[in-house]
Amino acid sequence: MNTRTRQVAAAALVVAVVLAVIIFRGRGNGTTKTVAPSTTSSASSANTTNPASPDSVPGLTQIATVEAPTAMAARPGDTSLYVAEQVGRVRRLRRASNNFTVDDAPVIDLSSDVRSGGEQGLLGIAFSADGARLYLAFTNRGADQQVDEVALDGDRVVDGSRRTLLVVPDFAPNHNGGDLVLGPDGFLYYTMGDGGGAGDPQKSGQNPNDLLGDVLRIDP
Questions:
Q1: Is 148 helix (H, G, I), strand (E, B) or coil?
Q2: What phi and psi, each to the nearest 5 degrees, are found at residue 8?
Q3: 6-15: long-range contacts (C-beta < 8 A, 24 or more apart)?
Q4: What is the residue-averaged pLDDT of the chain?
């Protein structure tokens, strides 16, 4: 190899090294740099959407004490809350600003007609759209499921206004359902459990001719 050839080879090597250094540095701080997701951004997003985040945990404030509550309803045109007690009473929680007080006397007391305990008792309440009638779903003394209606005059139940809308024979003390709501169509919707036992022994939930195990629509 002559001197000229050696000089050319050396120059080519220097150029190659310089280019390698430039390319390497460009990967570190140039426009072709790959950016990993920001852990700070991800954490911030997780805190915003994660329901377990300390900032999103709701606080609870005790507003009243009642006995074994099973259901609650609001009466149209009234700021009070109405709570069903399993034993068979409906209690009114009067609201004043952000405070509630429980009336000494219940709105109605059906305890003499209600079998309570376990999954039995006064299980559901609802008001008519005008607030003039109160509906009650409960386990009666014969252990069957019953829905009654009473008329209201202001805060008072009208004497002699109580009437029975439905009685569903039941064969066991559990799986009674009992939720009662008024739909926008003016009908009552009543959830019936399958009658009890274990594993729906009478297949009530699969029998469209059996009122047990259904959501019932009642025209009051």
A1: strand
A2: -65, -45
A3: none
A4: 82
Please determine, for residue 24, whether its predicted confidence score (pLDDT) is greater than 60. Answer: no
Closest CA to 108 of 72, 67, 150, 144: 150
Conformational region of residue 119, where left means phi above 0, alpha means psi within -120 to 50, and beta covers everything else:
alpha
* Residue 39 host element (H or E): helix 39-49
**195 phi/psi in degrees, rounded to 5:** 105, -20
**Is the Cβ–Cβ distance between 70 and 124 less than 8 Å?**
yes
Closest CA to 177 of 134, 220, 137: 137
Task: For residues 218 and 220, give the distance between their C-alpha atoms in angstroms, rounded to a whole number.
Answer: 6
* CB-count burial class (<10 Å; 0-12, 13-18, 19+) for 205: middle
pLDDT one-digit tens code per residue, 53-94:
667 888 888 888 999 999 999 999 999 999 999 999 999 999
Q: What gap in Å lies between CA 96 and CA 79, rounded to an integer?
A: 9
Structure tokens at 17: 């090294």
CA 142 to chain centre: 32
Spatial neighbors of 115 by CB under 8 A, at least 6 apart, are 121, 139, 140, 141, 142, 143
Q: pTM of the predicted model, to two decimals?
A: 0.72
Q: Is 116 helix (H, G, I), strand (E, B) or coil?
A: coil
